[in-house]
Specification:
6-stranded antiparallel beta sheet; mainly beta
């Protein structure tokens, strides 16, 4: 059964841009989207080879071919080791849709960040 967990102060997450926390034996990364200040929470384990996914960067996904790149809508989390990108809403890997990472709801109450896990 999932429940809300108090994982960090909002001040800490904003200051560092992220917080890596343990909830129920899992590492979860809470990240700040610098474009709008929203918080995202994902499992801190890339399903590709187990890298610490939440040490990667939040960015706009690029698509196209050499010399003809364009930006897509929405943000992705790019793995710091092999560059695989994951949708922040669904957790689906955009490079291999057969892989996904868990995504968690986040809320802020009284200056504290809570994750539903």
């Amino acid at each position: 059964m999932r429940e809300w967990h108090d994982v960090a102060s909002l001040e800490h997450v904003i200051r560092d841009g992220r917080a890596i926390v343990r909830v129920g034996g899992r590492e979860i990364g809470v990240l700040v989207d610098p474009s709008d200040g929203s918080l995202k929470a994902l499992r801190n384990r890339c399903p590709h080879v187990g890298s610490p996914l939440c040490r990667g960067t939040l960015r706009t996904r690029e698509s196209g071919t050499p010399g003809a790149y364009s930006l897509e809508e929405g943000k992705v989390l790019r793995c710091p080791h092999h560059g695989w990108e994951f949708d922040l809403v669904s957790g689906v890997c955009l490079d291999d849709p057969g892989m996904r990472v868990a995504v968690y709801e986040v809320k802020v109450l009284g200056g504290r960040v809570h994750v539903l896990a």
